[in-house]
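Record copied across here:
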Amino acid sequence: MPVKNAIQVLVLSAILLWIAPLSAQIADFPPDTVAGIPVNYTEANVGEYTLPALLQLENGKAVKSADVWMDQRRAEIVKLIEENQFGRCPEPRDISFEVHEKGVPAFDGKALRTQVTIHFTKDKSRPKMDLVIYLPPDATGPVPLLLNISFSANELFIDDDAVRPGMIWNREHELIPASQGRPFGKLDVVRVVEQGIGIATFYYGDVDPDFNGGFDFGVRKLYLKPGQTERAADEWGSISAWGWGISCAIDYFETDDTVDEKKIAIYGISRLGKTVMWEGGRDPRVAMVIASCSGEGGAALSRRDFGETVAHLTEASRFPYQFAVNYQKWGNNVNESPVDAHMLVALIAPRPVLLITGNTDKWSDPYGEFLAAVAAEPVYELLGKKGLGKTEFPPAGEPILHDIGYYMHDGGHGPGPGDWDVMFKFIKMHLQ
């Protein structure tokens, strides 16, 4: 894309952010208060804002080529998001793979099952992560794979009695057998593999607990330096840790000749949508990102005062542990933050990204996700890819599927009935 055109797109995006309330389709709603912090649900009250520049290096020079983006600007943005939002991740060390079974028929022969435990320490004690993989039985070579990060242990998420039993964290922050817990939905394995796609999943709590005070029980404690008792202000929160678990799974896929490790899509919902957005930006081995209802801290613009805010995320009784400690300083000062969600979307370029939202999920700001995708488009264009190609907010049920995809289902927070069909179409467009 010529530089002149790229600049025109940037100017257009800035204008769109000014006129955005005129075309928003999320109905206004009375204001609320969460954790003592006001919540705005009226589009006219969002306020004005300016997004941090994407195509400008920290030294002020314009990014005019794909090489400068990939070699310089991308690394600058990764560092900014590490330091100011999610925290730095260490490289995995001492991990090993224990393959319990490989290619075993499941679901009456409609899928082939593999089960692996990824050990995070040499002594193979907890924390460790159980990964279950299903592949099409008629595949003649390595297949593309969708890696799901789940709120449920594998045995609760899949109707397969042969899935190895696991452990989960309960509401009292105790580690208990997964059989004593309750599922958060079910995975239709057969429906996925019938598309010629593999599916794998793991429980996020295997990597790091999802509660205040969980640091001592997750993988992050393993990487403290000698004499260090707590994480530094720019070190990883739980979202970075869960994403680190994804990278460990990809490490395994690189050893498995039945999986095409160059065609791994990653999928997560809500806080796990934030996780796949960050991991997709951080790890270039990820071939595709599908983030559902990732909202604030994910694909929704933080500078928009609508729904959940950085202040809500980092309030002491809520989710500060999920982010770098440094993220808290932007809670009441978000317009001064050096990062925003359009940068997170742009980090995934030139790889495809699909943002899924719900038209009644006002807390997660579906329109803010759409605007982040619009603002990230100049980077995709610079790299020879196609962004949304639209500036008008689409109605529910009308997907936009290019290299940046956006789909808003008719419903709220979490998966909608049409999501999987859109996901299959997007995967086949880019990975098959």
Q: What stands out?
A: The longest strand covers residues 96-106. The radius of gyration is 21 Å. Residues 86 and 140 are 40 Å apart (CA to CA).
